[in-house]
Amino acid sequence: MDTALTRLVGVRHPVVQTGMGWVAGPRLVSAAANAGALGVLASATMTADRLREAIREVRARTDAPFAVNLRADAGDAGDRVRIIIEEGVRVASFALAPSRELISELKAAGVVVIPSVGARRHAEKVAAWGADAVVVQGGEGGGHTGEVATSVLLPQVVDAVDIPVVAAGGFHDGRGLVAALAYGAAGVAMGTRFLLTSDSTVPDAVKARYLAATVRDVTVTTAVDGLPHRMLRTPFVDSLERAGRARALVHAVRRAAGFRKLSGLTWPDMVRDGLALRHGRQLSWSQVLLAANTPMLLRAAMVDGRTDLGVMASGQVAGVIDDLPSCAELVDRIMREAEELLKALARFDGPGH
After folding, report:
1. What is the pLDDT of residue 276?
2. How far apart are CA 68 and CA 73, in angstroms?
3. Which long-range contacts (CB under 8 A, 24 or more apart) does 280-285 make?
4. pLDDT tens, position by position, 7-38
5. Are 173 and 219 in a shared domain?
6. C-alpha torsion angle, residues 180, 185, 191, 197 (rounded to 10)
7. What's the total number of domains in the chain?
8. What is the mean pLDDT of residues 68-77?
9. Looking at the domain assignment, is residue 108 inside a domain?
10. Keywords of this protein's UniProt record, alphabetized (predicted)?
11. What is the 3-state secondary structure (H, E, C) of 173-197?
12. Could you tell me which of 122, 3, 22 has the C-alpha nearest to residue 69?
């Protein structure tokens, strides 16, 4: 299926596997790439040295194009951009809008830049700064999310910018791909659906929790870091919501220390990142620390399998997913469903026919 996205990044299918911390590692990314989708390597939970190793590991597993996802507000974002350029990565994606300078540096090196946004004004800004495409996530999407549904946000962004738009939030099958194309998108991006594949390294017991979830079990809470965060509701999430400020601060300091050791960041680095997160937001210092070490809460579940001590970011589609295909099986199924539906629509000549 030829779209502006497939032409831009050189993949066979207009499907993107999003960059999920602790989930989108070399195994999942290479499996998605080999399936014809755009695999996105999540780098925010890696040291700079590990990022370089992971890029090389993906390249050893696949000849297909793939992307690296960066945190635009990270203190070492410039260093990570240089690693991407030096390693010849074709596509850079961003969880937040990157600066004009980062976009220019990447584009000067021939790297395709695709930021993720949750509002029309943000899409307009990065398009004006030279972004090559944009992923727009509606409120159904997992992790940090907004209030506007994809079905409302997507056409707004498509109408506002003249670069390819990739739809995210609520997609898991061929019907969703066709719907996104009908809205004017050039493809779809999926996180939870790729997390729930046999190629994902998430522990089987954690995957079982996702598969057992209903749509009502996927909630939005600000208890983790003060920002709206979509995840599975668990007793641990309930305890975060009930915790007083002093208790939350103690837990935040402990987890921040753990993340500092894993990430290689210094305390000044973490304070700087925390200040960046706090800028313009009414966050308590415990929430700032939780925001800086949210990766530790995700790691507890996604790597260690401790759903009692961690959080499970999730899109609402977790409530309608009931299987664990390989990436190849998933992408093939999505494309087959989309092609069959497009053929059926081509024969459609009105209600009742």
Report:
1. 61
2. 15
3. 281/226, 281/227, 282/226, 283/225, 283/226, 284/226, 284/245, 284/248, 284/249, 285/249
4. 999 999 999 999 999 999 999 999 999 999 99
5. no
6. 60
7. 2
8. 90
9. yes
10. Flavoprotein, FMN, Monooxygenase, Oxidoreductase
11. CHHHHHHHHHHCCCEEEECHHHHCC
12. 22
